[in-house]
Amino acid sequence: MNAGIKQLTFVIGGPYGFSKEVYDRANGKLSLSKLTFSHQMIRLFFVEQLYRAFTILRNEPYHHQ
């Protein structure tokens, strides 16, 4: 889990993505969907995925059995 990354920044883009400068500065790219959503919905999706990931990493129950 620890890849030696000191700082991690997540940026939510607009409906047309980012400018070339933003892409040039990025070391990586993560896409939550190919669809276009409002920034409010993407924030909700993102927080849920973070919660899910950390819950699974802590071996806490997440999925229904």
The 3D shape can be described as flat
Query: Compute the gyration radius: what is it?
Result: 15 Å
N-to-C SSE string, H for helix and E for strand: HH
Structural class: mainly alpha
- Tally of helical runs: 2
Name the beta content range: under 5%
Low-confidence stretches: none
Helix content: 25-40%
Biggest sheet details: none
Distance between the termini: 26 Å
Question: What's a quick, concise take on this entry?
Answer:
The protein is mainly alpha-helical and 65 residues long. It contains 2 helices and no strands. The relative contact order is 0.12.
Provide a descriptive summary of the structure in words:
Belongs to the RNA methyltransferase RlmH family. Its EC number is 2.1.1.177. This is Ribosomal RNA large subunit methyltransferase H. GO terms for molecular function: methyltransferase activity. By secondary structure, the protein is mostly helical. It has one domain (1-65). Helices cover 38% and strands 0% of the residues. It has two helices and no strands. The protein has helices spanning 20-25, 39-57.
Quickly list its features:
single chain; mainly alpha; flat
